[in-house]
UniProtKB/TrEMBL annotation:
<dbReference type="GO" id="GO:0043164">
    <property type="term" value="P:Gram-negative-bacterium-type cell wall biogenesis"/>
</dbReference>
<dbReference type="GO" id="GO:0005886">
    <property type="term" value="C:plasma membrane"/>
</dbReference>
<feature type="domain" description="DUF218">
    <location>
        <begin position="23"/>
        <end position="170"/>
    </location>
</feature>
<dbReference type="InterPro" id="IPR003848">
    <property type="entry name" value="DUF218"/>
</dbReference>
<dbReference type="InterPro" id="IPR014729">
    <property type="entry name" value="Rossmann-like_a/b/a_fold"/>
</dbReference>
<dbReference type="Pfam" id="PF02698">
    <property type="entry name" value="DUF218"/>
</dbReference>
<dbReference type="GO" id="GO:0000270">
    <property type="term" value="P:peptidoglycan metabolic process"/>
</dbReference>
<dbReference type="InterPro" id="IPR051599">
    <property type="entry name" value="Cell_Envelope_Assoc"/>
</dbReference>
<protein>
    <submittedName>
        <fullName>YdcF family protein</fullName>
    </submittedName>
</protein>
């Protein structure tokens, strides 16, 4: 019998779209290389002109946590998510001229809203964009980037990290903790932002 609770949570958290031609690819902060590798692949295939990695040091830590996978390939003296993601992009064939990095944010909300400030300051027009992120982070990323860029049409192109997927998250304690943590944050972390966004969108 299908478990309705698992199905509903899975469908909500694990947003996934097919990549389409876009103006930019956004990369929320993180220390796992897989999202940036996939973003580089999409860039090489001509999906976007700009890549916008974001992230400083997590507000929960006093220093950058270190590379979470493939440290034999990505072994720089990284001081932020942005430095790390930028190195991954460059090592995978993305020219530095296509990368617009934001290195001050300490959480996902700042990833989105500080990227907005950076894009506006550089006068870059974005009508369509891809978000490449960890699969279990997809819903929260979409919500926050959509609030920061209400005029942009987004597609979310997630990748599996830490072996947590839509099909298996409920089978391990790590998967359950990650996904239910995302579910909680989507509900209470930015109530004010969501309320303002919803009321503005119905004006």
């Amino acid at each position: 019998m299908e478990n309705r609770i698992i199905t509903d949570i899975s469908n909500y958290i694990f947003v996934s779209d097919e990549p389409e031609q876009a103006d930019a690819i956004f990369l929320p902060g993180g220390s796992h290389p897989t999202p940036a590798e996939y973003a580089a692949c999409l860039y090489q295939k001509g999906y976007a002109r700009w890549l916008i990695p974001s992230g400083g040091i997590s507000v929960k830590r006093e220093k950058w946590p270190g590379v979470q996978a493939k440290a034999d390939i990505y072994h720089g003296d990284y001081q932020s998510d942005c430095e790390f993601l930028t190195d991954v992009l460059v090592k995978n064939g993305v020219p530095a001229s296509a990368i617009i990095g934001e290195n001050q944010s300490g959480h996902t909300r700042d990833n989105a809203f500080l990227s907005r400030k950076l894009v506006d300051a550089k006068g870059i027009g974005i009508e369509t964009a891809l978000i490449v992120c960890k699969a279990f982070h997809a819903r929260r990323c979409l919500m926050l980037y959509q609030m920061a860029f209400p005029e942009v049409t987004f597609k979310v192109c997630p990748v599996s990290c830490y072996n947590i997927t839509k099909d298996n998250w409920f089978k391990t304690e790590q998967g359950v903790d990650r996904v239910l943590g995302e579910l909680t944050r989507c509900g209470n972390q930015f109530v004010g932002d969501i309320k303002a966004y919803l009321l503005k969108s119905t004006d």
